Amino acid sequence: MEKYVTLANGLEMPMVGLGTFKAEDGSSCYNAVLAALKAGYRHIDTAMGYGNEESVGKAIKDSGLSREDIFITTKLFPKQIGYKSAKYNLHESLKRLGLSYVDLYLIHWPSANAQVNTHTWQAFEELYEAGLCKAIGVSNFNINHLDRLLASCRIKPMVNQVELHPYLNQKPLIAYLQNEGIAVESYGPFAKGMVFEDQVLADIAKKYQKSVANIVVRWGMQKGIIMIPKSVTINRIIANFDVYSFALTEEDMKVIDGLNLGKRLYTDPDNCPFCPTTEYNL
Ligand SMILES: NC(=O)c1ccc[n+]([C@@H]2O[C@H](COP(=O)([O-])OP(=O)(O)OC[C@H]3O[C@@H](n4cnc5c(N)ncnc54)[C@H](OP(=O)(O)O)[C@@H]3O)[C@@H](O)[C@H]2O)c1
User: Fold this and answer.
1) Closest ligand 1 atom number to CA of residue 240
2) Which segments of the chain have a pLDDT < 50?
3) Whose CA is closest to atom 48 on ligand 1?
4) Count of domains observed in the chain
């Protein structure tokens, strides 16, 4: 099993990373990131909106690992969408992280106004060309948002990070992204805890002598999807990374695919209360 997904520009993105949404700034987030890096994770997903970039940056520094060996993603705060603020806010994120570049910078949420996404994306292209991010992408973009962005961009997004788990397998969006050469990244892999109540997943986990968390992460990996399970619990962080010592059979992959309900548990990008339709200007 490959440990990386190669992005359209050749950059290798580790297939498994640590999510940090709701990992509280301070010791909780710091200890989680440090433990993850010690356990072998080389990919951390944060965001301006998570308010924990300082703790992430401090843990990276204290890990003793080389900067080039760690893949860091951050995201532009949804309310700050816009050309000027994208530029300003990446610099601010870098200051908080204590880094000179991030590996991946994402538009966290799309605006319903396609022009706002286009302007913001122009700033992302320029930040990428300036070397402040090694790759650029989007998050929570559906096919309509992407159609409009792809019609106007110079550089295609390299990643789309979206809600994706056994109950929302995003099949049409995955087919679209794969056709466009855009890597698929899942968030919310544990479906707000639903996977831990699922007898089908429990039975599969028992068969492989792994946890349900391992089974879900491995299911995504075997589809070529980048997975970023979050935990601030040290023993879970370590155990969740045990995804390279086994492989799911095609049959079990199909059983998990069969759990799809088309069920969205997070905010619907088409009906997002915090995505401005006008550009934020400083
Ligand atoms: N782009 C976006 O709009 C967006 C939206 C949401 C999330 N994300 C990203 O995706 C990451 C993952 O999504 P998420 O954090 O929402 O949800 P998640 O990773 O599906 O689930 C995290 C929850 O599962 C618990 N957990 C972790 N491992 C477990 C285990 N082995 N057994 C039982 N419970 C376990 C965690 O608890 P403890 O922490 O208490 O251990 C936490 O409550 C985020 O952290 C963030 O980086 C992005």
Assistant:
1) 31
2) none
3) 187
4) 1
